[in-house]
Amino acid sequence: MSLLPLIPAPEPLGNNVVEFLQQLPGPCCMYLPGRDSSRCRFVVTLLHGNEPSGSEAIFRLLQQPQQPVCDLYLAIMNVRAALTEPLFTYRQLPGMRDLNRCFRPPHADPEGQLANALMTLIHETRPEALIDLHNTSGNGPAFGVAVHLDSRHDALVSLFTERLIITDLRLGALMEMSERDVPTVTVECGGAQEEESHQIAFDGLQRFFTQENLFDLSEAPWPIEVLHNPVRLELTEDLRFSYSAARRSSDQLTLRVDIEHFNFGVVTPDTVLGWCDEEAATQLRIRNAGADVPLAEWFSTDGGELRPVRPLKLFMITARPDIARSDCLLYAVRCRL
Ligand SMILES: [Zn+2]
Fold first, then answer.
1. Which of 5, 51, 52, 305 has its CA at 20 to 30 Å from residue 140's CA atom?
2. What's the CA-to-centroid distance between 186 and ligand 1, angstroms?
3. Same domain for 302 and 185
4. Which of 228, 249, 274 is the last residue of a domain?
5. Ligand 1 centre from 134 Cα, in Å?
6. Residues 38 and 143 in one domain
């Protein structure tokens, strides 16, 4: 059997998204015939098992009798991680690689092979657009991410949200590779626990299923704010850190417990993001598309306080220590006040 079997939507669907996922054979791709079978569109979701909005939205859309405007492929990926108790907690199962870092060759291990099977299916089906639905690990507003800026990507993002980040970071994510075949946008629907995130995914997918011309910007319900080339703030493996309302002397870095509130707000050199000792400053890494950049170009640790050195917009800030350590603490772009 293929690593990513092509199946019809399960019948019956189940009473909720968990029952729906339990009926799937594992990672799979659902095929829905549309009115116009000469073209198709592609949706990917659940690359991260702790990000339910995409599968929740698909479950709700499948309950509607409406036939999509053209053929649709809906790939639901890390079903096993999502259904491992506690449900929707594991980004990937312990000992496995982050699936959305596996799209770049080599594809030797099981995660790489699954990622490659998805890439092959996308290549063969030749969709006119691809949406990859995620949630942020912290709370905050929704936004889109793409590796390429043009009016088509603008239009795809505007189905869901009014913010688009154009990134030149290369991490082995799906959109970096699929862009060769199809205009691709990753949508971060907002926090995984928030009903509003599920609604954003649902409303956007409904437009994706039904809008005759996806690339007609005159249909866009809002103007798009575009942010360019973020950097990542990463923590080294042995940094001792925590989240708290005040400095904890037992830790090298204490991050503000409410740090997620800065998502998409502007922070300035007046903003204290946390407290650290001198050694912590050597264990924070800023990474851009090319390589590591000196921390001092972005953040200061003078006086034991972590502050931006210039006005920045921060996003994808996480308050989950495991994700801060294994992926990154936040992304940042320079901005004007
Ligand atoms: Zn994700």
1. 305
2. 9
3. no
4. 228
5. 4
6. yes
Residues flanking ion ligand 1, Cβ below 5 Å: 48, 51, 134
User: Taking the chain (337 residues) in consecutive chunks of 10 residues, what is each chunk's mean pLDDT?
Assistant: 91 96 97 98 98 98 94 98 97 96 95 97 97 90 94 95 93 95 97 95 97 87 88 94 95 96 94 94 89 92 96 94 92 88
Tell me, in angstroms, the distance from the centre of ligand 1 to residue 279's CA: 31
In angstroms, how far apart are the furthest CA atoms of the chain? 64
In the reported structure, the alpha carbon of residue 258 is separated from the centroid of ligand 1 by a whole-number distance in angstroms of 21
Q: Which residues constitute the domain of residue 285?
A: 231-334
What's the pTM value of the predicted model, to 2 decimals?
0.91
How far is the centre of ligand 1, averaged over its atoms, from the C-alpha of 67 (Å)?
Answer: 28
Are both 221 and 245 inside the same structural domain? no
- Provide the pLDDT for residue 252: 96
Identify whether 16 is part of a domain.
yes
Q: Where are the beta strands (DSSP E) in the chain?
A: 6-7, 28-32, 36-45, 70-76, 130-136, 143-146, 163-166, 184-191, 225-228, 231-235, 241-244, 253-256, 266-267, 274-276, 284-287, 292-293, 299-300, 305-308, 312-315, 330-334
pLDDT of residue 292: 85
Q: What is the pLDDT of residue 1?
A: 60
In degrees, rounded to 5, the angle at the alpha carbon of residue 332 between the alpha carbons of residues 329 and 334 is 160
**Ligand 1 center from residue 162 Cα (angstroms):** 19
Q: How far is Cα 207 from Cα 337, in angstroms, rounded to an integer?
A: 34
Co-location of 89 and 17 in the same domain: yes
Give the domain-ending residue among 228, 258, 287: 228
Statement to judge: residues 170 and 302 lie in one domain: no
In the reported structure, the alpha carbon of residue 96 is separated from the centroid of ligand 1 by a whole-number distance in angstroms of 15
pLDDT of residue 138: 78
Calculate how far, in angstroms, residue 303's C-alpha sits from the geometric centre of ligand 1.
35
Question: Into how many domains does the chain fold?
Answer: 2
For residue 48, report the distance from its CA to the centre of ligand 1, in Å: 5
